[in-house]
Amino acid sequence: MFLKIRKANMTKRSWKESMKSLGSHVDPEKEEQLKWIKIEIENKVKRIAKLIKKINQGSREGNSRRRSELLQLVDEFHKQYQSLYSMYDNLRGEVRKKIHEEHGGDSSSQSSSSCSNSESYFSPEELTAKSSSSCSNCEPLEDAILKDKIVTSNIEVKDSVENFDVENFQTPMAYSRGSESGEFFKDLRIDQGEEKLITESEWSNEKLKEKEDEILYLTDEFELRDKERLYQIKGLEDQVASMKVELDNLCVQKRELDEQLVCKSKELNQMDERNLSLEATLLEKDDQFSHLLKEFDENQLNSTSRIDDLMANSSSLQKEKSELELSFEKKSHEAFDRVKDLTERTNYLQQELEALRNQKAELELEVSECHVRIENMKEELTSTTLSEKGLKSEVKSLAKEKCDMEEKIMDMNQEAYHSELQKEKLNDKIMELETKLLGKEAEVGILQKKHEAYMNDMSTQSSTLTARISSIQKQLQIAETEKQEFYQSLMQTEKKNTELTIKIAEHEKTLRGMQDVVNKSKEEQKQMQIQLEDSKSNFHNTEKKLEEMTEELHKKFEDSFRILSRRIRVAEQLHIENKEWYQKTRNSYEKENKDLKEKNARHEMGLRGINDISLTASDMLGSLGGVEFKFEECTAHFLNRISKVSCELQFVKDWVMRKNKAMAHVKDDFDCLLAQCDEKEAEILKYREKVWKSENKVRELEKFIKDGEETMLVLKEEKREAIRQLCVWIDYHRSRSDYYKRILLTEFGRRSAP
Question: What is the pTM of this model?
Fold first, then answer.
């Protein structure tokens, strides 16, 4: 029993010392820092998850901001993770060092006692189990220092161990201070207390095992969480890489859009130039239209002069008519019968007048319908002008033409109003003439009485009057023929009206088709406006970038062009210098060859002489030994000279080879420059093809605009013709109404006459 209690005391002391050592390693400030870092990491992970969920739900700007935030958070999370990992490694190393130091110190001091005690009280199997349990306790403690939950569990274990030591092991610790024999006898006396303590120690050991299991479970959970976080970090890094790829694609698309915008801006500039030319043509057409209006005004003035002449003729005819009435008073009875016929005719004419009035009302309705159609056409013109806002110059010119046409219409309306006023004035004059005629008819009654006295005298004049009557009858027949011709002209005008109505219906159909085309063009314009509004947001941002890029490219191109031009000039100069140097060296080489040939010839002559001398000297070898020695020296000097010349020739050959290599390098550089020039020419050709395509598109648009202008001109001409015909028709009906009014007035005058 005593041994068990001592074993428990030893284990508790080892636990106490290990917990104290671990508590010394972990500072409270570091614990607080670790807690705050843990909270920040959890918040960042939540924020990253939210951003990943919302990354493709908003606009482009919001997505770009979220991606930038996500990248920043991932970088910060990675840095914090690295710092925690470094702290974990440092603390683990410190703990291991401390444990090794403590094991080293304790092993030297307690090796004898502990080993002797353990060997005396325990078997080898128990010793191995004990060592394994101690090692297993050290490793989870090393890992538990950096985990918050493990720290709390260690603190609880520490508290339980301290409480257990303080409360339950005061007596054994007091006994341990004494001698072992005294403690043994005291422990034997209190067996019952020892059994209780043993049970409590076993319970505490079980609790410690449970805490150790919890610590192991927490370490496993922490490792799993670390692995999950690593997987999350890898996933985020993959997402960041994919987003970078998307950013590169977007940059490429942005560049393509910038190029398209540049092309479109060029096309717009070309369209502006074409619009200016079209404005000039429209101004010329306006001048022609003003000239035609002047001619129309002149024709109106001529027609007014003719009307005045006809009115004068009508006044003269009225005078003749009054004279004829004086002559026809004799035959009142016959005239009475004729008056009946005339009354019948007047009734018939009144019916015709009513029919004509109905026709006039119908014509006025048609005229009003025509005005309504004209207004509809004006509205359609306004709609076309609104649809053609892209072509600003044409819209302005059409607006000007519209204003001019409205002014002209106002002028025509004013002229019609003036004509109506003149008509009212003429009606007033006719009423005055009728009053005068009544007065004259009274005078005629007085004169009739006088005329009866002069009837005998007038019998002689009857023959002349009959002749006049016959002439008047002829005039009446002529008037009837003119009337028939007039009816025929009316029928023709009615036919023309029907044709005009058919044409107007056709024009309405064409206008409906044009409206459909205009509606389609409006829809296309709306789509283009939407695209323009989408592109305008990027256009203003890209303009600056394009300007900067163009300036940079222009500068780079100028610098490269200057460098290339300088290189070409330097290469040309080097080529010229090499040519000159080559010619000089060739000339010098030829001269040297000539000199060497001459020297060789001389030397050959000398050798021949030497050979001759050697032949002659072969007989005199003994006596001429000194001469042979001198000859050998001369030949040695000669050979040295030949070797020097050969070395110089070899040097010249090497120099020529170097220059040839330099020329080859220069040629290669020149070929590279030519290839670059060819590539630039190919790029220029591509740009020219794009420009040609854009010009073809502009031509097609111009053709479309010209077709629209031609159709508008045709419609304008048809409108003018319809207005002219309506004016002629109105003038004709006005003249006819005036004529019938006059006839009615004359007939009423005759009826009122006795």
Answer: 0.19
